[in-house]
Design goal:
Number of domains: 2
Shape: elongated
Structural class: alpha/beta
CATH architecture of the largest domain: 4-Layer Sandwich
Largest sheet: 5 strands, parallel
Number of strands: 15
CATH superfamily of the largest domain: PPM-type phosphatase domain
Mean pLDDT: 86
Oligomer: single chain
Helix content: 40-55%
CATH class of the largest domain: Alpha Beta
Radius of gyration: 27 Å
Number of helices: 11
Strand order of the largest sheet: 2-1-3-4-5
CATH topology of the largest domain: Phosphatase 2c, domain 1
Length: 373
């Protein structure tokens, strides 16, 4: 592994350097918290081994705790979480406990035992290897999931359409699709599966497979398509899982949009005049009950109208810090860009959501839009 070692004593740094070199590890040595932060900012490390006291005759560990917080919450977080092992004096067990409470993975007591130090580092080396393997597998899964999103879309005369999906984690539980239901007929789908991560991603793939396998039924009877998908999803998933969904069929020659909202946030229809209409829920979420009924409603799209359906991750962006992006901000952002081209509109809305909550994305952010022309 490549290890960053931070300690204010030159003899300690040299002893650790020789020990780790003999074990096959690469090291970079620094003598102060500032130098440690600089090294972490400009380098890439698999592990940090750091002392908790730097000023002469101090034992409080305040400098070390400040450095630990800065590394874990800033520089090292960039690399997906680099483990930190802290070094403390024999008499500073409470300090080691506090460091681990803040995110350190282990501690070494000075003067250290070489075998114990090497064993601790080897344990972290094994965990790092497993974490990298898991991350690689998740990256493959993310790529596969992105390929499940629509890659090629049919062209219609009276409407432009598109979508965006940004998972909160490597993979997520949101899914959108555009379905060819026959000449001049477009199926629009946005679904949000309960849960996050791998489990939600598997259920999302299951949901897409259910839709694709029943697509011929949807060409004739959209309500029958959803009823069949509900049955398949209910039978193949645990009882606690479900999916909210907005499904619509757009007919090019009549400009008519028939929609079924399955417990999903109300889609927004922004008229060319600026008036806002809400396409509220007309059915329960998919997968809760084997027997499922829905109501289909119809609206017409005139030139200049914009329809946007979205996951709750759009509205709830920022909730972890006590504020939400919310519907009012979404409508305001739509009013500013609805007259433009569709692709910049989608990018602008996603950008507004991410700018509102720049530090963390706690849920998938997904939206689809139709702009009548």
């Amino acid at each position: 592994m490549k290890i960053l070692v931070s300690d204010d004593q030159v003899d300690v740094l040299e002893a650790i350097r020789l020990l780790l070199k003999g074990a096959g590890h690469q090291t970079e040595m620094v003598e102060s918290p500032r130098a440690a932060l600089t090294a972490a900012e400009h380098g890439s490390f698999d592990l940090v081994l750091m002392d908790m006291n730097y000023s002469r005759d101090t034992t409080s560990g305040d400098e070390g705790l400040t450095l630990l917080d800065a590394l874990l919450n800033g520089t090292l977080a960039r690399d997906g979480g680099v483990p930190v092992i802290v070094m403390t004096a024999w008499s500073s067990v409470d300090l080691a406990v506090e460091a681990m409470r803040r995110g350190a993975v282990d501690f070494i007591q000075k003067p250290w035992d070489n075998a114990r130090l090497l064993a601790t580092i080897e344990k972290q080396a094994h965990r790092t290897k497993e974490r990298k393997k898991n991350r690689s597998e998740l990256e493959i899964a993310r790529h596969v999931q992105q390929r499940l999103l629509p890659q090629h879309a049919l062209a219609l005369k009276t409407v432009a359409f598109g979508g965006r999906c940004l998972p909160a984690q490597e993979i997520g539980g949101d899914y959108y699709d555009f379905l060819d239901l026959g000449p001049g007929r477009l199926g629009v789908l946005l679904a949000d599966v309960s849960g996050k991560g791998v489990a939600a991603a598997l259920l999302t793939a299951n949901l897409q497979a259910s839709f694709r396998s029943q697509l011929e039924l949807g060409m004739k009877h959209p309500r029958a398509l959803l009823a069949s998908v509900n049955k398949l999803f209910h039978e193949s998933t645990p009882a606690e899982y479900f999916a909210t969904m907005f499904f619509a069929e757009y007919r090019d020659h009549t400009r008519e949009l028939r929609y079924i909202n399955c417990g999903h946030p109300a889609a927004l229809l922004i008229r060319a005049s600026g008036a806002v209409e809400h396409l509220e829920a007309t059915a329960l979420p998919i997968g809760i009950f084997a027997a499922w009924k829905c109501e289909e409603k119809t609206v017409s799209l005139a030139p200049g109208d914009v329809l946007v359906a979205f996951s709750d991750g759009v509205l709830e962006a920022g909730v972890e810090r006590g504020d939400e992006f919310g519907e009012a901000r979404l409508i305001g952002a739509l009013h500013l860009v609805r007259a433009g081209e569709l692709e910049p509109l989608l990018d602008s809305i996603v950008g507004e959501v991410l700018r509102f909550s720049p530090d963390t994305q706690s849920d998938d952010v997904t939206l689809v839009a139709l702009r009548a022309i």
